[in-house]
Write a structure and sequence with these properties.
Layout lengths: L3 E12 L6 E10 L5 E8 L2 E7 L4 H5 L5 H10 L3 E2 L4 H5 L7 H12 L2 H11 L13 H9 L1
Antiparallel strand pairs: 1-2, 2-3, 3-4, 4-5
């Protein structure tokens, strides 16, 4: 079984104001024997798109005007997951490599800024199987409705 180390994680808001806020979260993972990879979530009004990439795309989302061509190609290639919520992901995640890192990222993007910053500081550099990932609000809601 592969072990996954959290090399880095970050969350930010790339828009807002009169329009709905778009939040972007990214986690960089390293395996004990392999290249690093990234999971990125963009969420607007509770509707996520999740991408798995070999390099960071966080800055692309934060500066969409500069990276519009790259974002177009990324979206044309297809998201790992795209829906109007997270329920399907929680129900059907068996084929997703390192699902726990998605739970980690969902928690980061859905919690308060203070808790997010503290949790990143506590978990950066640790292996996923060494930490307890709190359930996000959407995971709790999904469990209650199941």
């Amino acid at each position: 079984m592969k072990k996954y180390q959290i090399a880095n994680a970050r969350v930010d808001q790339c828009s807002g104001g009169p329009d709905p806020a778009i939040f972007v979260g990214e986690v960089e993972l390293k395996t004990t024997k392999g290249k690093p990879f990234f999971f990125t979530i963009t969420e607007c009004d509770g509707m996520p798109m999740i991408f798995k990439t070999d390099s960071s795309v966080f800055d692309w989302w934060m500066d969409q005007d500069t990276y519009s061509d790259e974002l177009d190609k990324l979206q044309e290639a297809g998201a790992l997951y795209e829906s109007d919520g997270y329920s399907e992901l929680f129900e059907n995640h068996d084929d997703i490599e390192c699902y726990e890192s998605l739970r980690y990222l969902i928690y980061l993007i859905r919690t308060s800024w203070e808790e997010m910053e503290a949790f990143i500081a506590q978990t950066k550099g640790k292996f996923l199987d060494e930490i307890e990932i709190p359930k996000s609000d959407v995971e709790k809601e999904w469990e209650e409705s199941a």
